[in-house]
Amino acid sequence: TSARSQNGVYSVPIEGSSSNIVLYGLSLHDFGVHNGNSPIKTSGKGVVNLTFENSAIIRSLARPVSDTGSDFVTFHNNWFENISDQGAIVVMGDEVSQNWAIHGNVFWESDPTKYGVNEGLIQCGNQMNCQGWRIVNNTIVNFTNERSKYSHINFDLAHPSSSDNRAFNNIWFNCANPGIFGPGLESDYNM
């Protein structure tokens, strides 16, 4: 799927919840910045059990994953290449976002002169209360210049009651600003 003026996958629970969604083997590429369009966008509380795996998001000028309070979300074995905006996986709002598993993904920057993230690759922000997140075994490569220097995992702006979040065994290679920041985020064995 390619889109310059629309979202790729968009879920808005109207009544009740959207649940048990599996997105497998997709190639989402060439997304623009018009109207905040993202390859994957979930809006509103009620998305439960979303799995995105064995897929690629390439050349996205909008945040590839934008969420406002989904639970039991898994991102596994995906390729994120040449992304821009606030980050690759961004959860923001004043909701609770529980039990995310972000593991075995590759975040690759092959054109740092055009693309780059400005707040962190993976982030819980705008007072979102993140609970039970596991960010493990991800590889982050080539975030080197001024546009793409924020290759870190950022919980700096998460709600202070965010807890039970862990970032382990993530590897940064050739990155200007690797690291893990924020309250309620335990980390170890990262390099």
Assembly level: single chain
What's the tally of helices?
Answer: 0
What is the element string, with H for helices and E for strands?
EEEEEEEEEEEEEEEEEEEEEEE
Largest sheet: 7 strands, parallel
Mean pLDDT: 84
Describe this structure in words.
This protein has 191 residues and is mainly beta. Helix content is 0%, strand content 47%. A seven-stranded parallel β-sheet has the order 1-4-7-10-15-19-22, with no helix packed on it.
Descriptive labels:
191 residues, 0% helix, 7-stranded parallel beta sheet, 47% strand, disordered N terminus
Topology:
Elements: E1 9-11, E2 18-24, E3 27-31, E4 40-42, E5 47-53, E6 56-60, E7 65-67, E8 71-76, E9 79-85, E10 89-92, E11 96-98, E12 100-103, E13 106-108, E14 116-117, E15 122-125, E16 129-131, E17 134-136, E18 139-141, E19 153-154, E20 165-168, E21 171-173, E22 180-181, E23 185-188
Parallel strand pairs: 1-4, 2-5, 3-6, 4-7, 5-8, 6-9, 7-10, 8-12, 9-13, 9-14, 10-15, 11-16, 12-17, 13-18, 15-19, 17-20, 18-21, 19-22, 20-23
Give a nutshell description of this structure:
The protein is mostly beta strands and 191 residues long. It has no helices and 23 strands.
